[in-house]
Hints:
The protein is 24% helix and 29% strand.
Amino acid sequence: MKSSVLRGLLSALFLAALPIFAQTPASDKPVTHDISKVDPAPLGGAIATPLPESQARKLRKYNIEELAGSRQAVGSQLVDGHLPRPILDYHVRSSALDQRLSFFEGGLVVVRMSGAGGTIQKRVIIPPDAMKKYMDLASADRVEHIGKNELTAPQLNRAASFRVYRRDGYVERTFDPAGSQPKNLHDAVMPLQDLLRAISEDRAVTSTLPNYEPKVGDELVADDRKTWRVERIITNGDIVELHCTSQPTVMYVAKKDLYNYFVGRSGQ
């Protein structure tokens, strides 16, 4: 008798809980965004640094290790209503290439590269544990202990600067990136160079085009610097028909693959 009463109570509790479980939304569906949250294409912009096909296949199959756990920096990155505070700035320039990697509070990382192949401008949010690892090696105290007499002076056609911010200002060292480096500087710079390379090669999390939901009339700039207008969305919304605005050319691209063809939206 007692067991039948217990079974009845458990059944009642289970049935009462069903509506609660039924209302739990699915959390694995990606959050989409419209054209307003796609970054403008930089002048002469490129998607990423070109890779040999063997490496490109590898990147399509595996995630880039340095970007594990990172997420898109979509939309405003204000922190409590103000611009994020700068944390670190690493700038390398030569006669052929200009590269800058900047860290901001909230895990925001911004990269800008310019050279003969065009301009790459990207941003991404890295996880807190990754930010901590970079900053443990590149703290203001560590940089401050690098003697200026230990560094090779910058050259006219080749120079690097490494700046770390703190509450009362910043610590900065300038040097020749091809010269010898003391251990403290080498340990701080090498991970940043790896991250810079990873972001420049990535075509997914460092772009605002993945998860973009196209609408008719949107204009996107391709890697060839031509502008394409969304004219139609077909096949249950999976295929996008785009017309070139400067010549009579039509292109059909799967919505999920748009980030492989376009740099950003048209306009600044």
